[in-house]
Amino acid sequence: MENAIQLTDQQKELIERLGVMHEHEGLQPAVSRVIALLLVSPNTELTFDQIRETLQLSKSATSNAINLLLTTQRLEYITKTGDRKRYFRSKITNWKEDIKSKFSTMNHIADIFDEILKQRPGNTVEFNKNLADIVDFIRYMNKELPNLYKAWEQSRS
């Protein structure tokens, strides 16, 4: 395992805990561990072999995990002059754009839920109220998020 990254027991534990958290979000175990490794590793950019050997995954599992993470924009890769290898890294630096994108998606969901609500029968009062509450909450969050972000930025300066 010459390519494996040396991790402390605490780092290994963090990778497992974060991996399990991602699994609860519906991601496959290998995908979950790759995300976690790239966040916990002291090296922010890892090669395919470093990922594979550190996590003790098969080539296929590693390849599938990396490809899924690239497709879903959770990973990116860079190359280095004179080196044919690809170095994978977390796209955590894009967290602001990711949050905006998620809220845009949520706003789209609110639009659809609003359409559903308009066609719902009136005799399902509690269900309709819950659906309306979801729409109202999403719209409220989208309205307040810019203010919350500004307040957060001001608190840091």
Structure description:
The chain has 157 residues and is mainly α. Helix content is 68%, strand content 10%. It has helices at 9-24, 29-40, 48-55, 59-71, 95-119, 125-156, and strands at residues 46-47, 75-80, 83-90. The protein has a three-stranded antiparallel sheet. Helix 2 (29-40) crosses helix 4 (59-71) and helix 3 crosses helix 4. The longest helix is centred in the C-terminal third of the chain and has 32 residues, at 125-156. The radius of gyration is 21 Å and the shape is elongated. It starts with 8 loop residues before the first helix and ends with a helix.
Mean pLDDT, all residues: 92
Total number of helical segments?
6
**Low-pLDDT ranges:** none
**Residues in helices, as a percent range:** 55-70%
**DSSP strand content:** 5-15%
Q: Name the quaternary structure.
A: single chain
How many angstroms separate the termini? Answer: 45 Å
Q: Give the helices and strands as they follow along the chain.
A: HHEHHEEHH
Tell me about the largest β-sheet. 3 strands, antiparallel
Set down the secondary structure blueprint:
Layout: H1 9-24, H2 29-40, E1 46-47, H3 48-55, H4 59-71, E2 75-80, E3 83-90, H5 95-119, H6 125-156
Antiparallel strand pairs: 1-3, 2-3
Helix pairs in contact: 1-2, 2-4, 3-4, 5-6
